[in-house]
C-alpha cells in the first residue's frame, strides 16, 4: 500500500536522521517498511536511501542495503538523481566503497556506462576525485568489455566527458598527479588527446606553474612530464594561445566539488 504524504515525510525524517547518525540497523528496519526499500527517494534532489548511504561512505550499510534489494527491484538501480548521478557515481568518490561498487556492478553491470548530466561516467568521477583504487577497479571492469589493448574509439565514452576533457586532463586539473601518471603510462593515446579548446594534458600542466612548487609532488610531476613528452605529445602552445584562465577556473569548480 502506498504511503500517505504525512507518513512518507515522517519516515524520510527518521531515515535521514538514522543515516546521519550512522545507525545502520535503524535504516534497514525503516527500509523494510517502505515498498521501494533502499531505492526509496529520500531527498528533494531525488537521492535514494542507497545514494545517501553511499555518499556518506557507510560501506557496510551499503552492502546490507544491496542485499535487501529484491530481484524485482534491480531495474530501479539505474535511478539517477537531479544531477544524473547513479549510486555507482556516488561510490566512485571513495576508495573505501570499492567492495560496494563491486556488488553494484555484479547486480547491475550497465551502471558502468551511465553518464551524469556533466557527461561523466563513474570511472571519470573516480579520476576527478583522485581515487586510484576505485579508478583501477572500474578501469578493470571497462577492460573486461573492450580488452586491455586497443579499442580507443569504443572506450572513449568511459574516459572522456562531453566537453572532450579526458580522465588524464581532469586528474591534472585537479592535481592528482599520481593518478595522472598511472593513466599516462597505461593509455598513451590520451597524452595527445585534446579537449574542446584544443589543449593537451601536457599543455594544461604547463599552465599550472604553482603545481611545480610543491616538494611533495615533485617526483610525480617529473615522471608525469617525462611520460607525456616521451609519447606523441610534441605540440607547443604560446601564452596567447593558452586559455589557462578558463581551464583553471574549471579546475576550481571541480576542486570545490571534491
UniProtKB/TrEMBL annotation:
This is Uncharacterized protein. The lineage of its organism: Eukaryota, Viridiplantae, Streptophyta, Embryophyta, Tracheophyta. Pfam families: Ank_2. InterPro entries: Ankyrin_rpt, Ankyrin_rpt-contain_sf.
Amino acid at each position: 500500500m502506498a504511503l500517505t504524504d504525512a507518513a512518507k515525510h515522517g519516515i524520510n525524517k527518521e531515515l535521514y536522521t538514522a543515516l546521519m547518525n550512522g545507525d545502520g540497523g535503524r535504516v534497514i528496519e525503516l527500509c523494510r517498511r517502505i515498498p521501494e526499500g533502499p531505492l526509496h527517494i529520500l531527498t528533494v534532489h531525488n537521492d535514494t536511501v542507497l545514494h545517501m548511504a553511499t555518499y556518506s561512505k557507510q560501506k557496510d550499510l551499503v552492502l546490507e542495503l544491496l542485499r535487501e534489494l529484491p530481484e524485482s527491484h534491480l531495474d530501479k538501480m539505474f535511478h539517477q538523481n537531479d544531477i544524473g548521478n547513479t549510486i555507482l557515481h556516488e561510490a566512485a568518490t571513495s576508495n573505501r566503497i570499492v567492495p560496494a561498487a563491486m556488488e553494484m556492478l555484479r547486480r547491475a553491470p550497465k551502471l558502468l556506462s551511465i553518464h551524469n548530466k556533466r557527461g561523466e561516467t563513474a570511472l571519470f568521477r573516480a579520476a576527478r576525485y583522485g581515487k586510484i583504487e576505485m579508478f583501477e577497479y572500474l578501469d578493470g571492469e571497462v577492460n573486461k568489455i573492450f580488452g586491455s589493448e586497443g579499442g580507443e574509439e569504443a572506450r572513449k565514452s568511459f574516459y572522456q566527458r562531453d566537453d572532450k576533457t579526458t580522465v588524464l586532463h581532469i586528474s591534472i586539473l585537479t592535481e592528482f598527479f599520481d593518478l595522472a601518471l598511472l593513466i599516462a603510462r597505461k593509455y598513451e593515446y590520451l597524452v595527445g588527446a585534446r579537449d574542446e579548446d584544443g589543449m593537451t594534458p601536457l599543455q594544461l600542466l604547463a599552465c599550472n606553474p604553482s603545481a611545480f612548487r610543491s616538494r611533495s609532488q615533485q617526483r610525480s610531476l617529473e615522471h608525469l612530464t617525462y611520460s607525456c613528452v616521451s609519447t606523441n605529445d610534441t605540440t607547443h602552445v604560446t601564452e596567447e594561445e593558452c586559455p589557462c584562465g578558463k581551464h583553471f577556473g574549471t579546475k576550481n569548480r571541480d576542486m570545490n566539488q571534491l
